[in-house]
Design brief:
mainly alpha; transmembrane; elongated
Length: 94
């Protein structure tokens, strides 16, 4: 026979802690996934004219050139400020 133990609801404090951790984790993961696209968008915005030798012709060209010339970590340059802003914001957002 199955246990007749009643399911205990977590305390308010435990529930709040779980919500904060879940929200903070979601914000962290979102930044880690979207930051490379934001870096590429910014690089497109600051490109000089058509005569620029380092000009990107497409998003795939930007990925390829950044990976080849600067390495895989180049997609995460400047990620610390967005993480420090977004993680707590998402943690406390209702």
């Amino acid at each position: 026979m199955a246990s007749s133990k009643k399911y205990d609801k977590p305390s308010i404090l435990k529930h709040a802690a779980m919500q904060i951790i879940s929200g903070g984790s979601a914000g962290f993961v979102e930044i880690c996934m979207m930051h490379p696209l934001d870096v590429i968008k910014t690089r497109f915005q600051i490109q000089r004219g058509a005569d620029d030798p380092s000009r990107y012709t497409s998003i795939f060209d930007a990925f390829k050139k950044m990976f080849r010339n600067e390495g895989p970590l180049s997609f995460y340059k400047g990620i610390l400020p967005p993480i420090l802003a977004e993680t707590p914001k998402r943690a406390v957002k209702v």
